[in-house]
Known about the structure:
The protein is built from four helices and no strands. The chain is an all-alpha fold.
Amino acid sequence: MNLIPDAPTRERTSYFWSCLTLQDDCPFFSSADPNLYYFGITLLSLYMGFVLMILADLKFYWSVDHLQRQIDYYVNLVRKKVKQVQSDQRRLMSTQERTENQLKRSEECKHMVTGIRGALATGDPQQLNALTAYFVDTRPLNKNTWNATRRCPQTDSSDWFS
């Protein structure tokens, strides 16, 4: 039970809103005390300074964020290029190894052809049989070795003297 009657309430705006909307109720616009006017201008400049500092910080952090994104982009680009270079290097090494194997094989074949020519020139079948033993496969087959079907083997030297 309420013994005190309700006082009539009057809708009143705040001083902050009055000053923000530049109404006459703002205490800083009082002609009675001009110091309040200067105090209001000082407060307004402080608030504007804070707002400017916040905006400058935001702009700084946005630029730092953009810089970080650029750094990430270039780091990823360098990683991608390094992977491409490593892949090219591996491909070059395998090509170089195949070239070296081919060169070695070519030297062996050149030596063999020279030996066969010498044996044919002398007409000695024993020398020729020793040379043709080269064409018998003793190595395991893989993609880099020459097998008997690639070499066209001739194991019987009598075919060459006929």
